[in-house]
Design brief:
Order of helices and strands: HEEHHHHHHHHHHHHH
Oligomer: single chain
Number of helices: 14
Distance between the termini: 53 Å
Length: 320
Amino acid sequence: MEFALVIILFFISMLAYFKIAHKYNIIDKPNHRSAHTQITLRGGGIIFPVAFVIFCLFNLNEAIQNYWSFGLGLLAICTISFIDDVKTLSNKIRLSVHLISVILLLYFTGAFSLMPFWTWPILFVMIIGTLNAYNFMDGINGMTGIYSLVTLGSLAYINKNIIQFTDENFILYSILACLVFLFFNFRQKAKCFAGDVGSMGIGFWVIGLITLLIMRTGEYKYILLLSIYGMEVVLTIIERILLKENIFEAHRRHLYQLFANEKKVSHLVISSVYAVCQLLINIFLIHSQLPVWAIILVIFIPAGGIYLGLKWNLKKKYNL
């Protein structure tokens, strides 16, 4: 009964936001870098901070005791990201809020007490980099929602069947939020886009869960629950550096962008393939008893080879 009510509240929240977005013209207009061709509402990912607020209402005592620092970090990064969706902010302001949010996230996961001092800057760089990777990959319908759903589902499986590292509802509420968001986004003509508030919001939630899991188990292999995103972003950055491009400027060099823009493959097909690839990796990752270095080789040698081969062929075919 609780989850049925939660889903209803999520749908009501989304429909209410659509009215606000229409009234204040919070939209995404296509440009030369876009993979879409029509004006679409932006900021539908506001469902993710809303989902956390509703989680707190249904689990008030536990939320106050255990989730307050995560909640402050999530709401801070979502607020600044939503403002950036509406009005472009300076990088200094955004990065300052991101840093504060990451500090709150690491406090929530216990990293400051479990990890040596010298590793803290590394954690900051990795988490902020992963958050931005989530934002870079949010370019076509369905990508953010279905990829996050696969990762969250994998985390829910680990939490239930392998080792309990957090409250089950803390994962389930984010899964339900993904499903409701996908109802409006996983379409040929999406009703809304996630916006920065969505990619940063669900990215923050996923990273928080993965960090909790790593702190609980001491197994760094779980970083690979985001290996497809990581591989895509890192290889694309290397490519742009080799081409002497400004890596901080928007572009259309990601493999999914080439498939969507040049080859005209359906956004939903591309998003689904990325999600299935990550799902297969997760199944192997969860059940593998190999050491971390061997797991990395087994995942990245074939995946990287396929990725580079596909990108090479597309760039050669379309003279890119």
